[in-house]
Design a protein that fits this description.
Helices cover 31% and strands 25% of the residues. The protein has 14 helices and 16 strands. It has helices at residues 2-12, 26-32, 37-40, 55-63, 68-72, 139-150, 192-198, 224-229, 273-279, 301-308, 310-319, 342-348, 363-374, 378-392; strands at 49-52, 90-96, 111-117, 123-126, 130-133, 158-165, 170-175, 181-184, 209-215, 218-223, 242-247, 251-256, 262-265, 288-299, 329-335, 356-361. The two termini are 35 Å apart.
């Protein structure tokens, strides 16, 4: 009779939700996904979409490479740019003449070398030419400017302009690198990894090193591993850029009906879903719902659109789905460990830093807890009522 009563009371409590538990049941997550706060029954509830992890979705996520730098760094990848002379640069200017009685030649030498420093106004003085504006010009443009000024003064002149010091083409590299430094850029252009290498390279592994690029009051951050693996993200740096390298070990959080609830470091270049669950000791066989593994993540909008389609994505935005400060949106991946192919699919689904993996408990766990509660001796219940009355008074 007690068990029948327990079942009836448990049903009235909406699936034993009133008993203690470490998190939502799988049914609650599946019901809440995609609903607005009003539909869920609470204000300001986060709206998220649920996507099943299968062979197609796992392959799509693992193979995705975003055109990240335009969004992550806030700049297009661009090219090397135009290497021009700037204030503070030191140039070596060599002037040649055909005759020995020219302005810059003697019987012993038909050439003269001059070292000039570009002044704050962008100009420098050349004998018999006067002030020449160098700032903003390439070496060849500067050569042609000097040559044109000497044609009616020197004897069949020719000019060579070489860069000695490029103070105006400096990039600051600091943080978790071998040695923080101001790195001079060469005239052909250099990538992020080039200037980091000049600063001694990162002190930590690329999979736990983040690169922040600051340019013209804007900044963006990405994982150094992503820059190395995706050449399109290894953008050209520009004079005046600031690059900060920080070590931040990638971690994920494992919660629910698993043997270890913890924040866990990757400790490797890559980590898949099965490996992540295994790092926490695996699911608790006595409690876990094999069909109720969920991965909570703020995902890139391009991936969401590819997974659910633009129409569904727009519907979710209309329902109140909000992005984080990086422009990513909440997505929950649902993983069914009861399926035989889950052991293959799980190997191809990559874990990202700050992911939260939740293993829901089985419904039977709450039912067993409820039976334990209602099966307690009446004296214990009476004591509880007495204590409650005392607190109320």
């Amino acid at each position: 009779m007690m068990r029948v009563t327990a079942v009836l009371v448990c049903a009235a409590l909406a699936g034993c939700q009133a008993v203690p538990g470490e998190g939502p049941l799988a049914s609650a997550i599946n019901t809440d996904g995609g609903k607005s706060g009003a539909e869920i029954g609470r204000q300001n509830a986060a709206v998220f979409e649920i996507v099943d992890v299968d062979n197609t979705s796992a392959q799509l996520v693992s193979q995705y490479f975003g055109s990240a730098l335009k969004r992550r760094f806030g700049f297009g990848s661009g090219g090397a740019g135009r290497a021009v002379i700037g204030v503070g640069d030191v140039l070596k200017i060599t002037i040649f003449e055909a005759g020995s009685d020219g302005l810059f030649s003697t019987q012993d030498s038909k050439q003269t070398s001059l070292d000039v420093v570009i002044q704050p106004d962008g100009q420098a003085a050349i004998p018999y030419v006067g002030l020449v504006r160098f700032s903003g010009k390439t070496l060849e443009e500067a050569r042609q400017t000097i040559l044109a000024a000497l044609r009616n003064k020197a004897v069949e002149p020719d000019v060579i302009v070489n860069s000695v010091n490029t103070s105006s083409r400096m990039v600051t590299v600091s943080g978790a690198v071998g040695r923080s430094a101001q790195v001079p850029l060469n005239l052909t252009g250099e990538h992020i990894t080039d200037v980091i290498a000049k600063a001694g390279g990162p002190v930590a592994q690329p999979y736990e090193s983040y690169v922040t690029l600051v340019r013209n009051g804007r900044s963006g951050t990405t994982l150094l591993k992503s820059v190395i693996e995706n050449p399109s993200e290894n953008i050209y740096v520009q004079p005046g850029d600031q690059i900060f390298v920080t070590r931040d070990p990638r971690t994920f959080t494992l919660l629910g009906a698993v043997k270890q609830n913890a924040r866990i470091e990757f400790g490797a270049n890559d980590l898949n879903l099965l490996e992540a669950v295994a790092l926490g000791g695996g699911g608790d066989d006595a409690a876990v719902n094999a069909k109720g593994y969920f991965l909570f993540r703020y995902e890139e909008p391009e991936i969401i659109a590819a997974l659910i389609g633009n129409a569904r994505f727009n519907q979710m935005l209309a329902k109140g789905m909000k992005s984080d400060k990086f422009g990513r949106y909440p997505l929950v991946y649902r993983f069914d460990m009861s399926r035989p192919d889950s052991l293959l699919v799980g190997q191809t689904f990559p874990i990202k830093s700050r992911d939260v993996i939740y293993a829901a408990r089985h419904n039977a766990v709450d039912f067993a807890k409820f039976l334990a509660l209602v099966s307690r001796p009446v004296s214990v219940v009476a004591q509880g009522i007495t204590v409650a009355n005392g607190i109320g008074n």
